[in-house]
Amino acid sequence: MRLSRKACLLTRRQFVAAGALGGAAMVIGCAPGKGENWEFLSEDQARALAAICDQIVPADDFPSASQAGVLSFIDRQLVRHFRRHREAYRSGLEEAQAISRERCGQDLALLPPQQQLEIVSELSRQDREFFELVRGHTLEGYYGSPRHGGNRDAVSWRMLGLPEPPPLGRAQYDLRKGSPS
Amino acid sequence: MKRVNAVVVGAGAAGGIVAKELAVAGLSVVLLERGKWYTANDCRKDDLRNQRTTILGNAFGPEDEGNPRVWVDPRGVPHIVLPSEGSYQNNAACVGGGTLSYGAQAWRYLPQDFRMRSTYGAPAGSSLEDWPIGYDDLERFYEKAEYEIGISGDYSGTPFHGPRKRPLPMPPLPPGREFAILEPAAKRLGLHPFHIPMARNSVPYNGRGPCMRCRWCCGFACEVDAKNGSQNTVIPIALNTGNCELRTECMAKEILTDERGRARGVSYFDERGRLQEQLSDLVVVSACATESARLLLNSKSLLFPDGLGNRHDQVGRHLQGHHYTGAVGYFDFETYDDVGPGATIAVTDYNHGTPGLCGGGMLANEFIRLPIHMIDRLPDKAPRWGAGHKQAMRDWHKRSIVIMGPTQQIPTAEGRVTLDPAVRDKWGLPVVRLMGNVHPHTFEIGEVQAKRAQAWLKEAGAIDTSLMSYKAEQVSAGQHQAGTCRMGSDPKSSVVDQSCRIHDVDNVFVIDSSVHVTNGGFNPVLTIMAIAYYASDALVRNWKGTGFRS
Asked: Do residues B303 and B504 make contact, with C-beta atoms less than 8 angstroms apart?
């Protein structure tokens, strides 16, 4: 089932519900701030990271990075394939918070979007390496395979107008099954 | 363990063919492969974990744990690199090797590609050289590869190819939308566009069906088994003879030699990590350029203190791959048809004959893109993140075409594989240390090729283009790696003779891309296969029971 543009403008909870109606199998990892059990991130880190990811892929007619599950993607991989980047995330998120508190006197997650954009822009200048790491992971999660949790219900593929699931006759197997990498 | 006639190390493009040719000729063969035998379902069309996009690791090996290499950067600083990182220059570790998941372009090199030095002269500082054999020596083995492995395509559109006796066994796949856009444009430019030869069934062939045109092609195992590699052609034939035993997850440690300096077998770690010895009459090394060199260098003994075949410090030198450059074109109409494999059209007009350039390369449109590939291929003026990036993804994913190609690299003796003095892999073996680069003229050729790709796209109606041209900091060897055990007649400047036999040792052969003197301006796999048939042919002809006719 195809998500209408309007459905994507709904609130986060409604979006998840709409996704489930649409046949989404990926309900692992919801949006932050709901007492989610992160595998690596603390609640504070998750909120700050969500703010950064959502500047890299903001919501418009289609969901933002965190709405599409990118946080779950990054969090899951920080105890798997991205293990070597743990320290970079720890210190990078601390730096982002420090910039936010210094400039705006508040946690990054609590700022309005326009100010978040300014802080993230500043972060990209001050700590290019960390920003590029998050940028890569965010875009990869958002545009990659839904099975890793960052492109929930293939929402970015639908956004690009790609048939999802692929046309009949092209998929012999149920590609969503099997243990995630 | 029972002694056999031959141990073949590596079940990839070349090793699979050698094992089959020897087994069919009646030799007993043990085929060692460090990886597993995967099926398409092990990869599950994972955009983030396949053999081309390795953000979450390599789908077909080696895994990141326990398989490091060392890359020495241009400033001389060594870095430990993982198999999923680009500077590792990985190919694959599995039955089929790269051919399980490749894009499957199956090119013959051009006659000039075997005579690069006499055609152009060697640029100062390069090690450009002629092959000791030529296109004519390989022609019938190219043909054998095309028919046994199964190649589709159509050369009739171009005059730029070597003489051939038979057409390809299968017609090309029906052209996609990019072909329809690019073909007339190329013709208007006076070029000769044609259908890329592919190791992919376009019609039922070899008992398997045709390509179903899906989006997950290059980097993935084919889920309908329409892509032809050694794992679904020659290796099953080898096993069916009853003469060949394939041992997977077995890592070769060293080639064992006796007191007279002849090989007596191979020691290896089996799938449970136990050290085993397989004795044999002859040893064939087919582990791909980087790992073949490593195995020879790790095979040290009193008679060969610097490694087997390395008396003159030649093993590991002249490492090369291809320098890929090209351009992205952006259109005001949809170019994307969601029909794989995507890469369909090529020109070989630019491989040779440009005054001032030592060669060139083939140009072709790129394999069908996944959204992940588009993230950093947007117009130069598009924002790299934020709302503008998201909009640019929507604007251009379906309205762009990539043309690029493998510029033939000009090798140097300093671009090489050695052993790292300190770093060990999970078996305790010294790992590959990559250093040096190709000759800088390579990058000048690449830049010209990128502009040619751009011109083709503009002629096809691109309203904007961006160049993909750069100067690599290391030899971009990777899946096209070649040239570490150079074929030649002088033992002082080469490692193997023209039958792929090591100069020093009469029962050890290196049969894979390592022997390539130069690597053509094409994807190398069909040449690797032709060499494997060619060298196996000589080997079998000279074989007499348990030794060789002298």
From this structure: no
Residues B510 and B485 sit within 8 Å (Cβ to Cβ): yes
Predicted ipTM? 0.94
Residues from chain B that touch A156, judged by Cβ atoms under 8 A, are: 371, 393
Terminus-to-terminus CA distance in chain A, angstroms?
Answer: 26
Q: What is the average per-residue pLDDT within B402-419?
A: 98
B12's tokens = 């990839």
- Structure-token pair, residue B248: 């997977």
**Cβ atoms of residues B165 and B112 within 8 Å:** no
d(CA B457, CA B532) in angstroms, rounded, equals: 37
Alpha helices in B162-276 (DSSP H): 177-188, 234-240
- Would you state the pLDDT for residue A27? 37
Q: What DSSP state is assigned to residue B86? A: G
Q: Please compute the mean of the pLDDT values over residues B269-291 and round it to a whole number.
A: 97
Instruction: Return all residues near B358 (Cβ < 8 A) that are at least 6 apart.
Output: B116, B120, B121, B123, B128, B410, B441, B445
Please give the pLDDT value at position B425: 98
- Cβ B252 vs Cβ B259: under 8 Å: no
CA B317/CA B416 separation, integer angstroms: 4
Torsion angle of the four alpha carbons B37, B42, B44, B49, in this order, in degrees rounded to the nearest 10: -90
Nearest to A139 among B84, B212, B375 (CB): B375
Residue B137's Cβ-side half-sphere holds a number of Cα atoms within 13 Å equal to 14
Interatomic CA distance for residues B156 and B197, integer angstroms: 11
Q: Please state, in angstroms and as integers, the Cα–Cα distance from residue B378 to each residue in B13, B79, B364, following that order.
A: 35, 31, 19
Q: What angle do CA A45, A51, A54 make, to 5 degrees?
A: 130
DSSP letters spanning A69-80: THHHHHHHHHTT
CB B182 within 8 A of CB B456: yes
| A117 interface with B at CB cutoff 8 Å | yes
Indicate the residue type of B227: K
For B67, the token pair is 């398989």
The predicted model scores a pTM of 0.93
Rounded to the nearest angstrom, the minimum Cα separation between A105 and chain B is 24
Alpha helices in A105-174 (DSSP H): 113-126, 128-143, 155-159
Q: How far is CA B367 from CA B86, B116, B245, B460, in A?
A: 19, 29, 35, 18
Question: Above 70 in pLDDT, residue A25?
Answer: no
What distance in Å separates the CA atoms of residue B88 and residue B71, rounded to the nearest whole number? 7
- pLDDT 10s digits, B365-398: 999 999 999 999 999 999 999 999 999 999 999 9
CA distance A52 to chain B (A): 10
- Digit-coded pLDDT (tens) for B351-361: 999 999 999 99
Phi-psi region of B261 (alpha: psi -120 to 50; beta: other; left: phi over 0): left
- A24 and A153 in contact (C-beta within 8 Å)? yes
Q: Which residues have CB under 8 Å from A14's CB, separation 6+?
A: A7
Q: What are phi and psi of B331, to 5 degrees?
A: -120, 160
Mutate to test the interface with B, among A123, A139, A142 (most CBs of B within 10 A): A139
The position carrying tokens 């890359």 is B71
Query: Which residues of chain B lie closer than 8 angstroms to A159, CB-CB?
Result: 393-394
Check residue A35 and give its pLDDT: 54
Q: Quote the distance between the C-alpha of residue A3 and its chain's center.
A: 19
CB contact under 8 A, B57 and A81: yes
What pLDDT does A9 receive? 35
Strands, sheet with B78-81, edge to edge from the N-terminal-most edge strand: B78-81, B69-72, B430-435, B416-424
B275 DSSP 8-state letter: E
Query: What class, spelled out in words, does domain B4-41+60-548 have in CATH?
Result: alpha beta
Domain ranges of chain B: 4-41+60-548
In single-letter form, the type of residue at position B314 comes to Q
Quick check: B127 and B68 in contact, CB under 8 A? Answer: no
Count other Cβ atoms within 10 Å, centred on residue A11. Answer: 10
